[in-house]
Amino acid sequence: MTRSSSPPPEREQAPRGPSLVVLTGRETIRRVRPRASHRLDLRLLLPVVLAWPLVAFVGLVGPVWLVASGAVLALAVGTLVATASARDRPAPRRAPPPRGPDVLGGEGRSRGRERWRRGVPVGTSPGLRSLAAACAVLALLLGAAAGHRAVRSAGPLGDLASERAVATVRAVVAAEPRPVHKRGRAGPDDAPGSQVTVVRLDVTELVARGRTSAVASPVLVIGRGPQWSALHWREQVEVVVRLAPAEPGDDVVAVATPKGGPRVIARPGGVFAAADAVRARFRAATEQLWPDARGLVPALVVGDTSRTPPDLEAAMLQIGLSHLSAVSGSNVTFVLAAVMWLCSIVGLSRRWRPAVAAVALLAFVVLARPEPSVVRAAVMGLVGLLALSTSRRRAGIPALAGAIVVLLVWDPWLSRSYGFALSSVATLGLLVLARPWGLTVARRLPDRLKPLGPVLAIPVAAQAVCAPLVVPLQGSVSVVAVLANLLAAPFVAPTTVVGVAVSVVAIIWVTGAGWLAWAAALPAQAIAAVARWCAGLPLGSIHWGDSAAAAILLAVLTVAVVLTAPWAWHRTRQRPTVAVAVVVLASGVGAPTSTVAWPPPGWALIACDVGQGDGLVADNGGGHVVVIDTGPEPEPMRACLDRIGVTAVDLVVLTHFHADHVGGLAAVLERPVTEIRASPVLDPPAEAARVSRLAAAARIPLGELRAGEELTVGTISADVWWPARRIDAGSVPNNGSVVLTMHVRGLTVLLAGDIEREAAGQLLRETLLDPQRWGRIDVLKVAHHGSSNRDDRLLDQVDGRLALISVGKDNDYGHPAPATMKALQDRGFQVHRTDLEGDVAVVADGEDITAVSR
């Protein structure tokens, strides 16, 4: 008997959307997964973005009572909006009853039809929900700011600071002491051991005017001497200070100047002492590494930047690698990824891996110091790891917004931190742009190179979103930042992971950790090489300006480029000739031709932009030069000599021994140097001794210059007019500056060093600068960066009409003084300043003398 068979009924295609159970005849149940949504979840991020500036510019500056009132008002408005939105339900949806197969079964079908008859509310209005969320976030953040400020301001410390009172404080060291590299500070108090150190203290007890008070207020102490730099984190100290009020919005209540050294009354204990021990052993294990690696490995692993060479730090800042010179979110991500990988290798259950990762993260934070910057990096690293997770990527933006809220509640002053803003924006770029850009790049790469798509996209996305925030800090847009990050990226993970392993091994075996440290030194040295090479590239950055308008313009242009890039790429493929023509035209219009033609033909003297200091170069023909002073640091002077194309230095003149005039000598000595001549006034002694050591190490003769001497070096000649004697009034080093007239390419330049009114008066009284003796002056190098401490009678004796002021931008000394600028302008001088124009070259063309800015 044959059974006839009929084909099974066709299955109906399940609709996309929420999971459904589909029944067709006797077919088994099939579950359809919902289609993943690619929409960005901005419901929490937008309120955070709106509340952030209000906290930064109102919550931390306005009166506490006003901030608290604002928090209450925002909470009330949010509650009213939420209540109103809950009542604002749209009309019921009515749709025809479902047809076709019974998708819910008999009972489910009846329930569905009943819901169709009643209508189902779809929820509250999205606009009202967003407004309620923004009010809630604002209320939370303003309330936190008001609470923190109320706790910190409790007690008499704020009033005492306003009165600039002297007090004895007991406090806990809240952050690692930070040495301040003085950029050109020149004064009579420069002496051995006068290194300035900034220390943040959490004051717990205050004794002033016969009254002892318990407080909980942070204070910033600016101390001098090695005893301040020797303090350790979490030590309890006692010190007598003179208080001064902090600026509005600062994260400290007062700024203190110590009246003596600190007295340590208690050492850190428990886990803090253990962390100190690990850090000390880690430093010992990395002590023998190359200088760059000795600075970078501890910086990346434990946040210890004390040994990073200043020129390397400047190079990394210049090309956008500064996030690699300290603990950042990327380091935390690498450490956590390595921990999770080890957990999988040893076969640890997935249930226990988050707990192990949390313990590792806690240990890492304690080791690197749980300061705001480290905690911020840890949180952003967690969000970054979440962004890289394929299963939780959609939760990245809400997690980032939640992390920002938590951090601002914990420390509202992070809202005014550039580092926090850069970390947040970079993480947002990773979440929003890195993956789609990586997929787009990967589609256009060969199969073997497709994994490079995300690698190429991450630094491009980070540079795109961070550039508008970096512009106010640097005033320029780095052209090589993406290239530098791409080249350095492969070396960051091994340096960090191996460095952490070094710190673990160092706990039990410092010698073995020292051997292992060389494995971390190799990639660290590669990072340093990338930084130095990229910093030396021509046209590495574009001057943009550091104003708010410049930052907004760059942000608008960046958004425009991102939005129009797909259309431009499509049009480029259709009409490549037009695209090439547009690129060539834009390059021709935007390329800075002055840099390409630097130095200008016929130049005689260049005032290098070395910051707050002096560094001048006179042309002696054929790549040979005479250098007058070397600036405060090696890197700016090295860059200036590189731009000029100097091959040999026939003479170095050091007008005096302040750091802003001799700090960059090491960079000059990298080229062949014939001789060094300096002031006979060996003050400050420490800098004079350092110059002597550098000259001896390079085997270069070091001599003196005194009044009455004449010099001839190649085509350059000079007459020395000062110092004739030591002047103990005013600043001894400044008044001991070498003053000379230099004759270069038919020009006479009066180089006045840093002399002040006492030395200028001596020159005038002794008629050493008689115009009949020194001849016509074409160019004046203004003394002491345009300081108001001057004698205008000296200007009256100079018939030149071109004045150069070598000065640092936004310096702390008010140089050049408005009175000095007026005195020069009243006498008809054409003034050129390195802080506004960069390198300034004096060009001689027959009788014409012009100044050309780089």
TrEMBL record:
Keywords for the protein's UniProt record, in alphabetical order: Cell membrane, Membrane, Transmembrane, Transmembrane helix
Subcellular location: Cell membrane
Main location: membrane
Gene3D superfamilies for this protein: Ribonuclease Z/Hydroxyacylglutathione hydrolase-like (3.60.15.10)
Keyword Cytoplasm: no
Xref: InterPro entries: ComA-like_MBL, ComEC_N, Competence_DNA_uptake, Metallo-B-lactamas, RibonucZ/Hydroxyglut_hydro
Pfam families: Competence (PF03772), Lactamase_B (PF00753)
Residue ranges occupied by any Metallo-beta-lactamase domain in the UniProt entry: 612-809
Segments passing through the bilayer: 40-58, 64-84, 127-147, 324-345, 397-414, 420-439, 451-471, 491-510, 515-535, 547-569, 578-598
Membrane topology: Multi-pass membrane protein
Top-level taxon of the source organism: Bacteria
Positions of the UniProt region annotated as Disordered: 85-121
Name this polypeptide is given: ComEC/Rec2 family competence protein
